[in-house]
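If you are new to this repository, start here. Below is one unmodified record pulled from the training split, so you can see the exact layout before writing a loader.
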Amino acid sequence: MNFWKNRNVFVTGATGLLGSWLVEELLNQGAQVTCLVRDWVPGSRLVVSGWTARVNIVRGELEDYATLVRALNEYEIDTVFHLGAQTIVGTAARAALSTFESNIRGTWNLLEACKVCSTLVKRVLVASSDKAYGAHANLPYTEDTPLQGRFPYDVSKSCTDLIAFSYYYTYRVPVAVTRCGNLFGGGDLNFNRLIPGTIRAALQNQNPIIRSDGKFIRDYFYVRDAVKSYLQLAERLPDEHFVGQAFNFGTETPMTVLDLAHLILKLMDKPALTPQVLNQAAHEIPKQYLDCSKAKQMLGWQPQYTLEEGLRETIAWYADYLNQRA
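And here is the target side for that same chain:
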């Protein structure tokens, strides 16, 4: 039996990269999906693909507690995927207050709404990030690594995790937390990010821009694997062995920014192009990558895509997307 068939699911951040792919998969599996949408983004994958015609749209923001209670109650929500957040590190640094409002207040508002609607809500998955750990000398991060974010985005994610666990331990809200590496895939329209920016530059036969010194190390995680990870974990809730827990998800193949840019150019057969290193990045963690042993042992989880496979699909998506808009 399909776990998601006719299940009422609420997704925040549905117009984002992960949200659009998650909504697609939930619809494919027969779920009844309700999306919280703050800004209408005509170019987003959720809108362009026409899935907005197949979901319930609640217009509002995470800062509005009453809207969240109404959505959970009126649509009789069984499962919540909390993906909505300010996710751009640079944007968060420029506007810390709005980041804290959406990422921190938004999380406690949603979890409070889940508590109020506890007879309905059976599982809550909160999207955190490897950034929640902050900078550490000993890598990779395990789920027991202390949360010590320093910069606005990182702090907001450290707080998100602590708030989620507080609602579990105090009120038994059936919540689990995911901490993923840097997500990538078709549908990310923030071309200041490394992967979409490099792909677009290469398609235009331009040298890609590296805003850091190129030496930052990250764990890059394909969005379609992330969707499978979220669904696999959510299906185990509210089992007592999984609620109140955090799980790392990634490919465990850390790379420098510069090495990843060169790999993309190689896959796109653009040997004449050379990344332009600006060395302008600030307020970012220099090295971070994940140990995913817990997910593998407890969930039997494995990524389905190699980094190169995910990049090839992503390159093809952007080639088609940009060609349609040429």
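Two things worth knowing about this chain: The two ends are 44 Å apart (CA to CA). The chain has a mean pLDDT of 95.
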